[in-house]
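Sequence and structure are kept together here, with a separate record for every protein. An example record follows, reproduced without changes.
>
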Amino acid sequence: MQASGCPLLMGTVPERTWSPGQYSGQARNERGAEMSDVTRRIERWEKKYSPERAKATLDLLHEEMRKRYEAATVAMTAMEIKTKEVLSQHGVHTTTFVPYLSYARQLWKLSRKQLISGEAFKVESQVLLEKWASRNLNPDVLAAIRHDVFASDPPTP
């Protein structure tokens, strides 16, 4: 049987993926013959999925998604401005802002994770600091970004 309409499977789908009677309650098609789990899943997916249904769902969510994206963009931009201020205060030349901003963006992404804060955040931010310091960035400037922009101190030993 061909896996038509399903982008997840290519090629042929076996008619039977287990021996008869191996599992109780096997699915059967209209003729009463047993169907493989793969075939059943593909048939159910084809019945459930439609581009119109997906579009309608996204249309309902679009405005809320836009608001969340806008809020995240505003917060990230504010973080980047604070980072540039710290870089300027430490005399970092503008041609080397990009890697420092990349470090700050990684810290920002880390700070937005729901289940990481406190000492765990401090440890993770120290790992990031060491990673970027190994790329020849000034560790004192990286520590200043962590402290001044993200209000995070080094982890306790």
Notes: DSSP finds five helices and no strands in the chain. The CA atoms of residues 90 and 140 lie 9 Å apart. The chain has two domains: 1-49, 61-150.
